[in-house]
Design a protein that fits this description.
Blueprint (H helix, E strand, L loop, with lengths): L1 H12 L2 H6 L7 H11 L1 H4 L8 H8 L5 H12 L2 H9 L2 E3 L5 E4 L2 H51 L1
Antiparallel strand pairs: 1-2
Length: 156
């Protein structure tokens, strides 16, 4: 009887979904994040994560590659959707979806500043692209005028 209960215990203790997450050998941080989003609502819904969520993940998935996990967390928490949620959030969420600690004003302010900086850089990049396009168009027009003048005066 003991031998029949021993194989059953690990099968019931370890859910199938986290086992799929725990195979990091051929996995990237993005694929791990995708798996976390499928398995856990706070990731899927981009809810503010509890401080120490990494420890909760390790407890849920003991053989997870920690470097990949940190990279996946970095991708997730720096995403625009997550930061927008953090701007307005009041509560953080644990891995199981239960509420955790409050989101501090400092963390909300940080999320807002990061988003503003990103928007500023994006606006600057677009402006530089527009200016480059205008300069390229002006150079093209100048070249066409020069060619027209050359053609005009070389005929005579």
């Amino acid at each position: 009887m003991n031998t029949s209960t021993t194989p059953q215990a690990p099968a019931t203790e370890t859910p199938a979904a986290p086992q799929a997450v725990a195979q990091p050998a051929s996995q990237s941080a993005r694929s791990l994040l995708k798996q976390l989003q499928q398995d856990y609502a706070p990731f899927r819904d981009c809810l503010p994560l509890s401080i120490g969520i990494d420890k909760q993940i390790v407890a849920a998935i003991p053989d997870i590659n920690r470097k990949l996990m940190r990279a996946a967390l970095g991708i997730h928490t720096s995403s625009q959707r997550y930061l927008r949620g953090m701007e307005k959030a009041t509560v953080r969420y644990n891995l199981d979806g239960s509420t955790g600690a409050e989101v501090t004003d400092t963390h909300r302010k940080h999320a807002k500043e990061v988003l503003q900086e990103r928007f500023k850089k994006e606006a600057e990049r677009r402006k530089a692209e527009r200016e480059a396009a205008v300069a390229e168009e002006a150079a093209k027009r100048r070249q066409e005028k020069l060619e027209a003048l050359t053609a005009k005066f070389s005929r005579k």
